[in-house]
Amino acid sequence: MTDRLGSMNRVPEYLCHYCKCVLGYDFVTVFDCLHDMVDPVSATSHIRKSLKPNGTWMVVEPFANDRLEQNLNPVGRIFYSG
Hints:
With 82 residues, this protein is α+β, with helices and mostly antiparallel strands. It has a domain at 16-63. 28% of the residues lie in helices and 21% in strands. It has a two-stranded parallel ribbon. The protein starts with 6 loop residues before the first helix and ends with a helix.
């Protein structure tokens, strides 16, 4: 599962599936995926446990309101059209 540049060497344990991960990361990122996970609470707990004591977790998730009419703005229209 590596690309031609060997990205798996730069991002260890990328496909750990919440088990047998190397612990003690300085920095973990999650971009636009936490809301799609089957169990985001467990994923969050696992990520927090995998960080070093002063590690950083950067989460980027799309912003959405609770009601459809509140999301009808230029960005919201793009999300609903996909």
